[in-house]
């Protein structure tokens, strides 16, 4: 059984898509990141970077202590290797997938995250127009990278559907909120429509839908406390033992 420490965001949904595609039994352990669960001592022992998702495999290959993995890209490689699906292990096949997984983690995820952050912020912290333009343009560039790749290839890593596709998909669903016009990217759209129609992708995207909270319904002081947790993070001091 896999325990997935999870909150329903794009970085979490990458993993639930793979778990559903591969038919791996799993249990969701909610990490309410708005409330600050990612800073609990128990969570920090699993991920010093205090971000979800984190995976715990109680029955790793070869037995022994449970294996704990943080960073969604590493979790997906681990799970796909464990079940021997969606991540070929021959030299060329492996790196054709790995390069797109790393591309997602280093480019699409962080830039889309900042794009959404500044677009949602409005002018509450002063004029953000440069940041909005910078990240909206960068995300547009990245959709172009996907579109050009999917012009020449059915899936991101070649002719087979792999974790490279699963890891990129959740960050593309909210293209309108990222200030993009999907009509600009027809080869990307063909791929996105195909993935959206897969039942396992639909189940993975819906995982934990009941967990989401409407923060605007919370008392104003709780809203302010939560905004500070998410948006004013600085280095954590070294723990005193
Ligand atoms: N590179 C990490 C990013 C994880 C990440 O940013 N998770 C966010 C939710 S999407 C989170 O836990 N945020 C908590 C916080 O900002 O304090 C991964 O892909 O696992």
TrEMBL record:
<dbReference type="InterPro" id="IPR036249">
    <property type="entry name" value="Thioredoxin-like_sf"/>
</dbReference>
<comment type="similarity">
    <text>Belongs to the GST superfamily.</text>
</comment>
<dbReference type="InterPro" id="IPR036282">
    <property type="entry name" value="Glutathione-S-Trfase_C_sf"/>
</dbReference>
<dbReference type="InterPro" id="IPR040079">
    <property type="entry name" value="Glutathione_S-Trfase"/>
</dbReference>
<feature type="domain" description="GST N-terminal">
    <location>
        <begin position="1"/>
        <end position="87"/>
    </location>
</feature>
<dbReference type="GO" id="GO:0016740">
    <property type="term" value="F:transferase activity"/>
</dbReference>
<feature type="domain" description="GST C-terminal">
    <location>
        <begin position="90"/>
        <end position="218"/>
    </location>
</feature>
<keyword id="KW-0808">Transferase</keyword>
<dbReference type="Pfam" id="PF00043">
    <property type="entry name" value="GST_C"/>
</dbReference>
<dbReference type="InterPro" id="IPR004045">
    <property type="entry name" value="Glutathione_S-Trfase_N"/>
</dbReference>
<dbReference type="InterPro" id="IPR010987">
    <property type="entry name" value="Glutathione-S-Trfase_C-like"/>
</dbReference>
<dbReference type="Pfam" id="PF02798">
    <property type="entry name" value="GST_N"/>
</dbReference>
<feature type="compositionally biased region" description="Basic and acidic residues">
    <location>
        <begin position="214"/>
        <end position="227"/>
    </location>
</feature>
<protein>
    <submittedName>
        <fullName>Glutathione S-transferase</fullName>
    </submittedName>
</protein>
<feature type="region of interest" description="Disordered">
    <location>
        <begin position="206"/>
        <end position="241"/>
    </location>
</feature>
<dbReference type="InterPro" id="IPR004046">
    <property type="entry name" value="GST_C"/>
</dbReference>
């Amino acid at each position: 059984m896999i325990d997935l420490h999870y909150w329903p965001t794009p970085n979490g949904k990458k993993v639930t898509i793979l778990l559903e595609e591969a038919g791996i039994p799993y249990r969701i352990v909610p990490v309410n990141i708005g409330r600050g669960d990612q800073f609990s001592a128990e969570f920090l022992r699993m991920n010093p970077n205090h971000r979800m998702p984190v995976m715990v495999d109680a029955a790793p290959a070869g037995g022994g202590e449970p294996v704990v993995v943080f960073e969604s890209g590493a979790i997906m490689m681990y799970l796909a290797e464990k079940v021997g699906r969606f991540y070929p292990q021959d030299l060329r096949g492996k790196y054709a997938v790995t390069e797109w997984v790393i591309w997602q983690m280093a480019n699409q995820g962080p830039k889309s995250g900042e794009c959404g952050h500044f677009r949602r912020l409005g002018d509450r912290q002063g004029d953000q127009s440069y940041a909005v333009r910078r990240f909206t343009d960068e995300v547009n560039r990245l959709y172009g990278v996907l579109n050009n790749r999917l012009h020449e290839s059915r899936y991101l890593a070649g002719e087979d559907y792999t974790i490279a596709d699963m890891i990129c998909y959740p960050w593309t669903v909210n293209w309108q909120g990222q200030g993009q016009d999907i009509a600009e990217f027809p080869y990307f759209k063909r791929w996105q429509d195909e993935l959206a129609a897969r039942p396992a992708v639909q189940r993975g995207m819906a995982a934990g839908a009941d967990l989401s909270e409407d923060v605007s319904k919370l008392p104003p002081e709780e809203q302010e406390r939560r905004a500070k947790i998410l948006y004013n993070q600085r280095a954590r001091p070294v723990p005193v033992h």
